[in-house]
Amino acid sequence: MFYLGGSMSTTTAPAPAPVHSPLPRSLAGRTAVILGGSSGIGLAAAGLLASVGARILLVGRDEGRLESAVARVTAAGAHADAAAAPAEVRGMPADVTDGEAMEEVFERAGSVHHVLMTAAYLSGLGPVTELTRDAAQAGVAAPVQAVLGVVRAAVPRMAAGGSITLSSGVLVPRPQPGMAVPISAAGAIETLARALAVELAPARLRVNAVRYGAIDTPLLRGRFGAAGADVDAVIAEAGAAMPLGRFGTAEEAASAALFLMANPYMSGEVLTMDGGQSLV
């Protein structure tokens, strides 16, 4: 029996969210599914999780890159602190926009503690008046539908105290021309994270999002057209305009996601990880 709003209720309250250390080491032995885990922030997150002895399932579309990522993360786990249990790393090729494929992913994962979604589907670039109706609608709808598909597949297999972490970007509060469609999708994902945090709270599941700034990943390097021996120089020159004089590293960005996974009292938050980019 508990007291609520001036009246007595005999409704049995669900057990409270489990309490554990908010430090990353509490992720040891936990199962994390990383969607978009074959490169960039997702791959960096997998490496950090491996260093504390987590069980990891990497999901990506490209089977070759995925195999390479699994090998890289496995090696990272092998060189972790001796106090950490050996990490278990697996890979599964799948398209995050395919609902049936996501069902298969989470069926294979078994009991899941944490889900990190970093897979990027950037479309609908350009002035809205120059986009076709289908392109504009798909650019907004596809990322949101992908998140909903992942949540529908993951939640029935998640234990109390688990978390789902989504990804957004700093252009949501600081829009740029020609980006209305992808910014709308990112803004919708931030809103969805907060709504899901409320909806899933009775199951004692947490949902958050990370709003990333410009991070030095293969995706960013591709946008600058940097290749070959000049790639580091190009990125360094472009990053010099950032408040801290460089772009963030994938590992720095990934650490924000691990913080949200590990801290059992973080839910419904949109955490900005941009090195001050959104301030200037």
From TrEMBL:
InterPro entries: NAD(P)-bd_dom_sf (IPR036291), SDR_DHRS6-like (IPR051122), SDR_fam (IPR002347). PANTHER family: DIHYDROANTICAPSIN 7-DEHYDROGENASE. Belongs to the short-chain dehydrogenases/reductases (SDR) family. It comes from the Bacteria. Signal peptide: none annotated. One of its GO terms (molecular function) is oxidoreductase activity. The keyword Oxidoreductase applies. Keywords: Oxidoreductase. The keyword Transcription does not apply. This is SDR family oxidoreductase.
